Amino acid sequence: MPTAVIAHLYHFLLVSHMSTIITTLCYARMNYNVGGLSPYGYHVVNVVLHSAVTVLFMVTCKQVAPRDYQMEPVLVAAIFAVHPVHVEAV
Asked: Hey, what's the torsion of the CAs at 23, 25, 28, 32, to 10 degrees?
C-alpha cells in the first residue's frame, strides 16, 4: 500500500474517530463470531445488546427515582425497549 494511504488510514482510525471506530469494529467482530455471515447471528447480537442496555437503563432509573416509585422505572424501561426510535431503515 502506498504511504499516503497508510497515513490517511492511520489518521482516520487513530486520530479522528478513535472511539467510534473501536466500538464499531468490536461490534462487527462480535457479530461475525456469533453468526458468521448469517443475518441470524447479527439479529441475536442486536437483541442481546438491546436487552442489556434496557436492563441497565431500568437499573439507572430505579437508582434515580425516589423510593416511593417502584413500577415507574420498569414502565419507562419497557417504553425504552419497544420505542420505534430504535428502528433504522436499511
From this structure: -130
What's residue 19's pLDDT?
65
Q: Which amino acid is at 19?
A: S
Nearest-angstrom CA–CA distance, 55 and 81: 9
Could you tell me the pLDDT band of residue 75, with boundaries at 50, 70 and 90? very high
* Rounded Cα distance, 78 and 76, in Å: 5
Q: Does the pLDDT of residue 81 top 70, yes or no?
A: yes
End-to-end CA distance of the chain: 32
pTM over 0.90: no
**Three cell numbers, residue 48:** 442481546
Q: 46: closest CA among 88, 3, 2? A: 88
Alpha-helical (H) ranges within 1-90 are 3-10, 18-35, 39-64, 72-82
